[in-house]
Amino acid sequence: MNWLSKLFNSSIGQKLLVALTGLFLCTFLIVHLSGNFQLFKNDNGMAFNLYTVFMTTNPFIKTVSYVLYASILFHAFKGIHLAIKNRSARPVAYATVDGKANSHWTSRSMGVLGTIILVFIVVHMGDFWYEYKFGHIPYIRYTQNMVTGELTSTPLVGMDGQPLTINKKMEEFVDGDNKIIIVKDLYAEVKEEFTNPLLVLIYLISMAAIGFHLFHGFQSGFQTIGVNHPKYTPILKSLSLWLFGIIIPLAFASMPLYFYFL
């Protein structure tokens, strides 16, 4: 196993780990986006709130989340470290080489783009993950008639008009023909946060940074792990541009815009 240790302690091995964690995070973005599409359902947030409960209570998902957090930290800090190391290794550019002519500007700006994304992740986790875990997210009661399918929702408040807490993420029971669900209302938190134009602007700038970062990073990750084939490389480049460079960032950007203009 000594060769494995030497590999991952080498510059090549570290670049390989950055590539693998980056590709893992690309997969996560697709899953995260599909879950967040629940925000657009016309059910006053019930589907999104139930999705949130599932993502924070399912044992398998919780285990994967620790791998996710470790991957984000490693990919961000090691990526920035390698970018600084590469730049310092050649403080003066070769006179005969025009870097701009040999590489896309996104490949030369991965460190800057990664730093913007890291700051965004901290803001995003603080606004939603931390608030959901440790903050004072209000609760909402959904009542769905099991015969007619009619759905109503009522925020839970006390006699003083303040939101009630039940020290649980969700309660579910049946009352006659009605199914009652009481759940943390993260949907309301999302709506409230995205009424702030400054936060919406931060999200839009961050989604642009993510788009440019993924446009180069996705195809570069496959090249780093050795996938470079005349048949498959064009497909990967197309996915880099359309899926990760345009569609996914625009889809995420549509969410703050949707609530801001709602």
Structure description:
The chain is of the alpha+beta class and 262 residues long. The protein has two domains: 16-136 and 189-260, no CATH class; 139-184, no CATH class. It is 66% helix and 10% strand. It has helices spanning 2-9, 11-36, 46-57, 59-89, 99-102, 105-108, 110-134, 186-193, 197-224, 233-260; strands at 139-145, 151-155, 170-175, 178-184. The protein has a four-stranded antiparallel β-sheet, with helices on one face. Helix 2 crosses helix 9 and helix 7 packs across helix 9 (197-224). It is elongated, with a radius of gyration of 22 Å. The chain starts with a helix and ends with a helix. The mean pLDDT is 86.
Radius of gyration: 22 Å
Could you give the order of the helices and strands?
HHHHHHHEEEEHHH
Sheet having the most strands: 4 strands, antiparallel
**What is the averaged pLDDT score?**
86
Q: Report the structural category.
A: alpha+beta
Low-confidence stretches: none
Q: Provide the β-strand percentage band.
A: 5-15%
Number of domains: 2
Strand order of the largest sheet: 2-1-4-3
The helix tally amounts to 10
Number of strands: 4
Q: Which shape, going by the Cα principal axes?
A: elongated
Summarize the amount of helix as a percent range.
Answer: 55-70%
Distance between the termini: 57 Å
List the keywords.
262 residues; alpha+beta; 4-stranded antiparallel sheet; 10 helices; elongated
Topology (elements, then pairings):
Elements: H1 2-9, H2 11-36, H3 46-57, H4 59-89, H5 99-102, H6 105-108, H7 110-134, E1 139-145, E2 151-155, E3 170-175, E4 178-184, H8 186-193, H9 197-224, H10 233-260
Antiparallel strand pairs: 1-2, 1-4, 3-4
